[in-house]
Amino acid sequence: MVSLRLAPTLPVIFLLMTVEASEAEWSVKYKQRKMCALKGSTVFMNGSYTHPDDLTVNKTFWIIDPIDGVEKPDLSKESDYSGRVEYFTDEQKHFSLKLSKVEKKDEHQYYFRIITNDDKERWLGTPGVPLTVTELRVETPGAVTEGGAAVLKCVTTCSLTAPTFIWYKNGRPLTTKTTINIQLHLQPVGSEDAGSYSCAVNGYQHLPSPNQTLTVRYPPKSVSVSNSSSGEIVEGSSVTLTCSSDGHPPVENYTWFIEGGVSPVGSGHSYSPLQSGSYYCEARNEHGAQRSAPLPVLNGDSTGNIQFHL
Ligand SMILES: *[C@@H]1O[C@H](CO)[C@@H](O)[C@H](O)[C@H]1NC(C)=O
Ligand SMILES: *[C@@H]1O[C@H](CO)[C@@H](O)[C@H](O)[C@H]1NC(C)=O
Ligand SMILES: *[C@@H]1O[C@H](CO)[C@@H](O)[C@H](O)[C@H]1NC(C)=O
After folding, report:
1. 258, CA 20 to 30 Å: which among 120, 204, 218, 298?
2. Beta strand 109-116 with 35-38: parallel, antiparallel or unpaired?
């Protein structure tokens, strides 16, 4: 038992010594090899470093786009970055750069720079971390027909780390719809799905994409006949019936029928009946047609004029 417990101790000590030894070398390790940031958000670039034991670190900072033989200035002192850059370091030689209100022009390669007490011993953490900045954009199929399927996408130009997306319709969050990664699935599409859509990354709801319109095409619905002359129908006055409907594209094709009749009695948005009877209209667009309920219209007096009854 004793020998079993002691046996592994030696290699462990040896391993610790190797780690110790390698810490005496220069090294800069970044946690992320590249970064994708949402425009307007805050990013952290993190890492850790080691340096030869005989050196003392005077200062550390970040630079962008290094040039051979040129000492590039500390990023936090550049006017483009003023007020947006913060550095963090700790005793364990972890470091991080916090860059806030990320802009498109922040797309550069970022490097950690170490200055020591020895003028000839400075270190640049190559290869640095490239930063890409993306905005969000909603892709819609434009127009879909009711009953079909629509997939909306929240598109970025680089891959954000494990984002979950929130969708908005007409400015209100959508909670009942199925979202899969960057996609919002609408199936079957209903006329109520038409509207302005935008998306945002969870935690960054204040940075939504611009709105995109989804148009839903559908046959006429809610078709009804009404008396278009307002107020009371005075005996002897003529009656005009109007057909109203909801459809997309909007209905432009109306046909009028008298109940019991076979052929149409008129066409157009409005119709003035010449005889008593029950009238209905049919509204049609390229996706189909629907008929209204009949509305009775009675002869009012002997002159042949018509009285309207609700
Ligand atoms: C990077 O460091 C910051 C603070 O130094 C910390 O808040 C953040 O969680 C770190 N991110 C990663 C990915 O390690
Ligand atoms: C490092 O710091 C020391 C004391 O603060 C200073 O005398 C020396 O000039 C610095 N060296 C470099 C290379 O900046
Ligand atoms: C999208 O449009 C709605 C109104 O339909 C509005 O309330 C909302 O703020 C808009 N969202 C964006 C990101 O412009």
Report:
1. 218
2. unpaired
